[in-house]
User: Fold Histidine kinase/HSP90-like ATPase domain-containing protein from Mycolicibacterium elephantis DSM 44368.
Amino acid sequence: MTVGDTVVLTAKAVEFCEGDAMTAISADVDGSDVHEIRENHQLLSVRAAALLRLAVVGLMAGAMVLGTGMHEWFAQSVLLVIYGAGAIWVAVLAFRKGTSAAHPTTQTVVAVVDVTAICIFELLSDGGYTPLAVMVLLALLVVLEVSARRAAAILAVSAVAFTAVVVFDPVMLPDLGWAKTIFVCALFAFLCCTVLAVVATQQRHLGEIERLSASRRALLADTMTAFDDERRQLSESLHDGPLQLVMAARFDISEAAKASTDDRLHRALSSLREVIGRMREATFLLHPAVLDQAGLAEAAQKLASITENRSGIDISAEVDYPVRSSVDPLVFAVMRELVSNVERHSGAAQARIELRAVDRVCRLDVVDDGVGISPETLSRRLAEGHIGIASHRTRVEAAGGRMTFIPTAVGTHVRVELPLLQ
Assistant:
């Protein structure tokens, strides 16, 4: 293999490592995104139910005014005030950041309060169709339940309560007779069964989404592992083959240069030293052995040093990362992409890499004093086919983390946070 062939191979290796820096995520990554999907679904359901509950309070007030006598209003008003205050509190809790409103225990308590309040409202009336219609709202509140078991329990209690109220109502049974009364109870039971079927279907759909998300995670992990294996093989081939040949050629030319005054030998020797340096950089960028041997902290320091020597940008690395994690290869890939962008696009004079482990989270910050980058610029580069940042953001989010562009007066500040996995 000639020196020219070696340089071409080195260039292809550098192009490969800069073009699509995918890294392996171990297959035992936890289902953090699946858990997040379920939590988000539960939170949205709780918030929607909280708003519906406020509407139910309003409808109960309307039923009191239109369907009951004034002598019943005091007791019903006290109930509505208490239930309304509870509904407002649940709504505030549901929309508060970091809420615990979606916790199963909380939802069970809220469901019991709903059933109790509406049943008491009916018992406080002297009977009639309007207060009874409020009980139908019990079934509608259950539509947004995320637990089929809890929904079944609530609906069963609601059906029993509705039947008891209808049977013992002083107006309905004498007015309708047993046949129509049984038919009304059957209609309510059918409504409860329909609602339960809807809840069960929603639960199955959520389970299917979780399975698809888990499959996507597994596929992504397999893809990243394949790319990592390919990079590792290319790095080893470059190191064990062309690099050794070039080093042998450098040794031969160095020996010949000692006995010759020909400047061409010295220029060739200088070029070979530069090629060897570039090839070592390429093997590091393809798959840094230091990442396996010394860890991510040392790899970050070496990446800063290599980029500084190559680009002339003053790059510092502030590292407080005394751990090892299965996300380290992904963090290094993102770091490499961000530092490469600083070198190629920022026009910066200074840059800083910060790597820390904070509360079981790996936090990577890459900051420069260059021209900065706007969302419009990101969109334009993506349209032009530059998918580096976008693809890495997807991988970070797939691993349960996030990539954030933090506004700064000058330059660009990108923060990447990933949960640390053993």
Q: What stands out?
A: The beta strands are 314-320, 350-358, 361-368, 402-406, 412-419.
